[in-house]
Amino acid sequence: MPKEMLISTVQKQECRIAIVSGGNLEELYIERPSSASHVGNIYKGQVTNIEPAIQAAFVDFGLGKNGFLHVSDLHPDHFPKRQGRAEPVGKKQPYRDRPPIQSCLKRGQQIVVQVTKEGIGTKGATLTTYLSVPGRLLVLMPGMSRLGVSRRLEDDNARLKARTMLEQLDLPDDMGIIVRTAAVGHDKRQFQRDLNYLLRLWKAVKERIRTTKAPAEIYQESDLLIRTIRDIYNSTIGRIICDSRSDALNVKEFLNVAVPRHRSKVELYVGTGGLFHDFGLEDQIEKIYSRRVSLPSGGSLVIDQTEALVAIDVNSGRYRGNSNPESTAFKMNIEAAGAIARQLRLRDLGGVIIIDFIDLYQDKHCRAVERALRDGLKDDRAKTKTSRMSTFGILEMTRQRVRPSLRDSMHRWCPYCDGVGLIKSEESQALEVMRDLRRAAASEEVARIEVAVTPEVAQRLSNLHRGEIHKIEQETNKAIFIRADAQLSGNEVQMKYTNHRGSAIELAKLGARREKAPPKTINIQEVIAAERKTGLQGKPKAAPQAEPKAPPPSDRAAKAEKPRRRRSRRKRKTDGPVGDTKHPVKATQPSPEQDKPEEPKRKKTRRGTRGGARRRKKKKAPPTETPGS
To answer: Is the pTM of the predicted complex or chain greater than 0.85?
Structure first.
């Protein structure tokens, strides 16, 4: 089935180009004036810094952020004393054989560079001194010494025919030429026409390099419309539909020069509902930004993107194609492999990509899944490299990253969750505010603290942490105010610190001005000893209650109040009743029985011991003789 190219331009503010096959979106390219691509542009820059540790230089080429130039992207013309010879196309001098970058460049030196990759995040653009000027059929590479054919052209006969035709042209000596994939099927006359155009263009670029002062732009690539037609259009595309008359005329004019036989494929959309909407692409474009991608059989893909890595998880979901688990997992992985290749193109994901397939136990099934993924990546214009599937079902691959992904180009980070997709709970925010309050109240320069939080967090602070806030105010003599602000949302917390003069201060700068001292600590044994000394160990003892005053006791009662001694087993004679220390008893008159002398009691001896038996035997009287004995 022939493909269709749809080109939609909305008031010159956005250009969208979609490649559709059978109603399904295969490729999508979006460009806006605010985020126009700089890849392929040539600049005259100035070296601002050289880092020998990473063998790279940073170049100011006029876009705000300095570009990154590695020694492996440095042309031999910049080597000291021209040590490098002219390199053939596609065969750079190895990194180990190159001189150090500090001997090739110096700070302040002017250099001509070309952007090979857009800056992503805080990183600047990646630069190279291997310049290339692309045309419709050929790519001109100044300073190279060999002819080549695009690696994407896999047919051996087509490659041999292109190389033979290229050798028949009138080629310059100091230029390298690469035959593009779009050159298949063209004759020698078209090759020579494209080569003449590139030579005239390079002559103009050289003149501007000579007369322009750095930093400045020397050569600018075509806009997205012409660039896409030049790089993507081929014979498999049946028609080109534009919703703008001016774009349709530009496309027809370009095809009239490049491929005159295909100029009749350009059509103009005259509907009112919208080009992409009438072709059913708007819903498909919205699904590109979702984290989960549904598969036709019931499974799904979960795609998580980080700064330098993409993780893709394959889930079987509701798919139960066969009672055999191995067969079910194999069919799901085959379907997922084609969907993953399509999602990589649509989302323009790059870098290191980790794919977690469903576990397979048979080696032939693993190899079949790898082949399915490589077949799906054949139509990808970006360079890809895949590895073999591991025993855990993990497949690693890399994809060339030329520009930020579609998600990063069309979206911005959420200011409330900072791009993580999660915000703190009200409990966590309240506890964090209490920690900040304690730290701020400990500063001597802070006299007043004002806290503005969301209404939910303010309610929690006012209800559950009211006592703790009051305690901090009393201990530190600081004024703390909690205010609910409905304009705040997510994790937003605004804290304002005021000193005794009424001036606002920043707690972070206040802590930075002080010399950082080690945290104060004390041994727990010292704390326990101090508590024992002051009687504060454990729970505080209750104060003894005041007792009612009693009349002065008599001498006998006073003796009874003395602490009782430990008595032996033998009872001793007491002079009176034993007094109670808490409730003293009055002395009474002794009874007549107490006045009688106590009879002496027989001394008790211990029985059952060998010594006692011996003593008893000695004390026993001798036997008396009886008459008649």
So the answer is: no
